[in-house]
């Protein structure tokens, strides 16, 4: 089955109405998706198989007053039925290309220490291109 990897733009909400299992952490709300896509510097790449979203990669661009913008990859998710097919790597490569198009010189990714598939994805990218580092990000609830 061919997989199409594409960027979502404002108004592409209808493309995300059919979603395979476990692509997102929670159900996608159309109002939240529309708001996300409308924000400048918010990017989403999806993988489609026969018009069903089987993967997603979301990132935001962080602008600085004293250096080039950076891309922060928030999430990468692929339905278990479609894993181990290079979909996550394809989406991540597309997201990094999008970051470069917008002037980003670095991309940041993070994952939990026990998320071995994500670490393999990020470390594989580092070995191939020498650009990305794997790290653990701490989140504080305020």
List the helices and strands and how they pair.
Layout: E1 4-8, H1 30-38, E2 42-49, E3 52-62, E4 70-78, H2 87-101, E5 106-108, H3 116-129
Parallel strand pairs: 4-5
Antiparallel strand pairs: 1-2, 2-3, 3-4
Question: Your description of this structure?
Answer:
The structure is a single chain. This protein has a five-stranded mixed sheet with strand order 1-2-3-4-5, sandwiched between helices. The relative contact order is 0.16. A hairpin with a 2-residue loop joins strand 2 and strand 3. The longest helix is centred in the middle third of the chain and has 15 residues. The protein is built from three helices and five strands. With 142 residues, it is of the alpha+beta class.
Q: Helicity level, as a percent range?
A: 25-40%
Radius of gyration: 15 Å
Please summarize the sheet with the most strands.
5 strands, mixed
DSSP strand tally: 5
Low-confidence stretches: 127-134, 137-142
**Amount of beta strand:** 25-35%
In one word, what is the shape?
globular
The helix/strand class is: alpha+beta
Q: How many alpha or pi helices?
A: 3
Q: Strand-and-helix sequence, N→C?
A: EHEEEHEH
Query: How far apart are the first and last residues' alpha carbons, in Å?
Result: 44 Å
What is the average per-residue confidence, as pLDDT, rounded to a whole number? 85
Strand order of the largest sheet: 1-2-3-4-5
Offer a concise description of the structure.
With 142 residues, the chain is α+β, with helices and mostly antiparallel strands. Helices cover 27% and strands 25% of the residues. Strand 2 and strand 3 form a beta hairpin.
């Amino acid at each position: 089955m061919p997989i199409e990897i594409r960027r979502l733009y404002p108004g592409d909400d209808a493309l995300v109405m059919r979603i395979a299992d476990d692509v997102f952490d929670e159900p996608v709300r159309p109002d939240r998706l529309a708001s996300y896509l409308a924000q400048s510097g918010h990017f989403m790449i999806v993988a489609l198989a026969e018009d069903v979203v089987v993967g997603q990669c979301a990132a935001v661009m962080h602008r600085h007053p004293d250096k080039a913008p950076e891309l922060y990859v928030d999430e990468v998710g692929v339905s278990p039925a479609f894993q181990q097919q290079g979909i996550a790597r394809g989406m991540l490569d597309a997201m990094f290309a999008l970051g470069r198009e917008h002037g980003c010189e670095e991309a940041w990714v993070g994952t939990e220490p026990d998320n071995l598939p994500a670490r393999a994805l990020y470390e594989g990218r580092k070995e191939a291109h020498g650009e990305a580092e794997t790290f653990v990000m701490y989140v504080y609830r305020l």
